[in-house]
Amino acid sequence: MYSFIEGEIIEKSDDSIVIRPDGMGIGLEIRVAPRTSFELPGAGQSTRIYTSFQVKEDSQTLFGFGSVPEKEIFEVLLKISGIGGKTALAILDLPRDRIVEAIAAGDSAVLTRVNGVGSKTAGRIVLELKDKFAEELMEEWAGDIIPAGLESAEGAGKEFSEAVEALVELGYHRTDARTAVRRARGTIGDEVSAEELLRYVLQHAG
Q1: Which of 21, 34, 63, 190 is a good FRET partner for 86, with 20 to 30 A between their CA atoms?
Q2: pLDDT digits over 25-76, tens only?
């Protein structure tokens, strides 16, 4: 229904925000993970939030995410038997690097920390996410949103994400941008800046 919403944050709590879309006299309540709420600006500031509208027989809920990869992972989680919106948000609230490591290693133990997620369900989650998402997308999500002022903003995932976003702004399709940055990183190494990755891609374009 909505791909994303831009506007002013009117209210904010650990698990939801109320946002007034630009130019509209309404406030939309959006459910978010606590980590996402923390990373969003405070009340009175403007933001863009990516959304997933979920309809059930007895409810209609708008869920919000700070990035496209986070939204895509949420929607895959909802397709797994036994995972609802609340549980999916709780999974996304786990440390991102731990989730990425668990998917890469096929280790589902970290997911059982979420209430309602048993070992069998955790195993299905790992299999589904490993099947649906390439390594670079998981890394991009892990480094996609970094709260201002945190030293942990540095890292390969962040550099990957910044290089991808720069290419998208230059007109690249997001899938092509990810592929190009992954190839660049495979050639010049992981420990390089987003600027170096971008420069390499542009120099070898075509």
Answers
A1: 21
A2: 999 999 999 888 888 888 999 999 999 999 988 889 999 998 888 898 899 8
User: For residue 78, what are its two tokens?
Assistant: 């909802």
Indicate left, alpha or beta for 7 from its phi (over 0: left) and psi (-120 to 50: alpha). Answer: left
Q: What is the CATH number of domain 4-65?
A: 2.40.50.140
How far, in whole angstroms, is CA 152 from its chain's centroid?
17
Cβ neighbours for 58, distance < 8 A, ≥ 6 positions apart: none
What residue has token string 């709780």? 90
Neighbour count for residue 31 (Cβ, 10 Å): 19
Structure tokens at 108: 């589902």
Which amino acid would we find at residue 27?
G
In 15-67, alpha helices (H) = 34-39
Domain boundaries 68-133, CATH class: mainly alpha
Q: And the tokens for 116?
A: 């309602």
- For the domain bounded by 154-203, which CATH number is listed? 1.10.8
d(CA 197, CA 83): 37
Region 1-12: mean pLDDT is: 90
